[in-house]
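Exercise (ungraded).
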Amino acid sequence: MADLNLVEAVREGLRQELARDRKVVVLGEDVAKDGGVFRSTDGLFEQFGPERVIDTPLAESGIVGMAIGMAVAGYRPVAEIQFSGFVYPAYDQLVSHASRLRNRSRGLYACPLVVRMPYGGGIRALEHHSESMEAIFAHVPGLKVVIPSNPYDAKGLLAAAIRDPDPVIFCEPARIYRAVRMEVPDEAYEVPLGEAKVVREGVDISVIAWGALVRTARQAAEQLAQEGVCDVEVVDVRTLSPLDTGTVLASVQKTGRALVVHEASRTGGFGAEIAAQIQEQALLQLQAPVRRVAGSDVIPPLAKLEDYFQPSMNLLVNEIRATMEF
Amino acid sequence: MPVTNLMTFNVSRMEVMDLDGNVDAGLMPDLSPEQVAELYGIMVLTRRLDERMLKLQRQGRLGTFARVLGQEAAHIGAAYAMREGDWLVPAFRETGSFIVRGIPVERVLQYWGGDEWGQHFPEGSRVLPVSVPVGTHMLHAVGIGWAMKQDRERVAVLTVFGDGATSEGDFHEAMNFAAVFQAPAVFLCQNNHWAISVPYGRQTAAASIAQKAIAYGMPGIQVDGNDVFAVYRVVRDALDRARNGEGPTLVEAHTYRMADHTTSDDARKYRPPEETAYWQERDPLERLARYMRRKGLLDEAREAETLARAEAEVDRVVAAYEAFPAPPPDDLFAHLYAEMTPALRAQRDALLAALGEGE
């Protein structure tokens, strides 16, 4: 066991996959000698060399397009997009090709690649460095979308993503890259894709979250428990696509109340999909409307206004109270 | 401070065969009479197929497709220069390339007939499916080329696209990545002068596509795209360079789209008839036939025989195409992921139930 933060867990996951399978390669901007702007690939270039850890020209569509060709030819590329807000030029390659090659060729070709990117706000960064765009990926048939919330899951989900036969978008919450340390096994392991996890059991209300907000949800739950208001169950979605509807529904059917929280802007956010699934399949167990706590429908702001954009623990506490009092 | 000349460059154009079928002996590639006859046979077959496909489309027996009329020398000559193990990364106007690479032609019709199974090419064919989004697929050739190099396979990747594709940003990224990584890739631009209704001069102010290679640090050459020998020669040399670890090449095949963009288009609306007439005189098939007649490789009997063989093959292909059963409705859900997701299973079951075919 090692005490790792999330970025270290990602690095260990990459290192072990690179060591396990010579077809695994890492490519992106500044991933080699520099070790990545967040240091998530630090030391990999030295260990595996320039043919396995590859600095590319500065072109996101090029990185993902090239990775598609590598994947078609039998490799397992792990492409890094430096910040999620820079992924848009590569969106075309992901939507037009990566997600479709298996379907287009009726299974002759597949696209087993991973696109990693730091995701979400909270790091007081420049414009385009704080985006939460999981919904536009989760909306695309043929892609998988994974968002870890802690170091243990990050390492295991990344291993599963790299070994997965289909393209996986892997969003790493930059805000908690270094916020938490936890015991992570030394050996390689997989956390299966497509499985949500109840990370705090409770009986009164289900808070459904992913990424950095899982931590916020747990903090809110602890506060409400201390105040004797209610006993909150927290569900960490972990994989948005394919969504583990079963775990979400089982929780809501047990508690009778649900609140979905995400940092991405509210309208058309992935919370809407989860809320819709709950009302379609668990209406009669509900004692209150399913609420969404989400970023406002605004451009992710710069540092001065950032705290007003992100759902805070206090907001979450208030929304949970409101749902309980409905 | 002096101003010095940083760089001077030349861009070449190669023609091997003139309009009357006379060839430059020094440039003529080493092709046996049997190979020349084979090339001719494939070009005739491709043209007959293109014509028949148009009829089928007009009769409602085939969907919208992109015709290849007039571009036979370019995309067939190039594919003919490939070797076993080479990869083809096509756009959507390369029917003859598919034939050269051994793709069952009925599959091509099956695809344009509206069935994705038409792109389930034989295992190991190393031919990627048709790519409809213009100018995005060349990057895949770079990645495949990188992989082949990494695997120490002495093979090359040929990717084909049109003049319109060179306006796309991904053309730039693909050329740049290919040169930086010295990928064993050959970029073949079928410059057919029209991207639907927009002419070459509106795609680029550059005098040639070939010269764009210079800026990326790779060789570029223009070739008479209606001269099958020149295309074959230039692409063969470029593929050899790639296999030998000498990096990528851009080849501009200067040709012309004699037909409409697709069967949904009407080029009379935007294209001057005299331009088409000019290119009609440069018809690639007729030009090869003139050469073969001069060399005694083609007479009326052999011409008729080639045509009859092509017609018979087209008949066979159409019959095979029309005998393909339509895919079952649940095929819709089966190929998104290696393993069907729970949501897709539910959606499949709902569709089948609605159709009265529930499990």
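Further reading is listed at the end of the chapter. For now, observe: The mean pLDDT of chain A is 97. The two ends of chain A are 45 Å apart (CA to CA).
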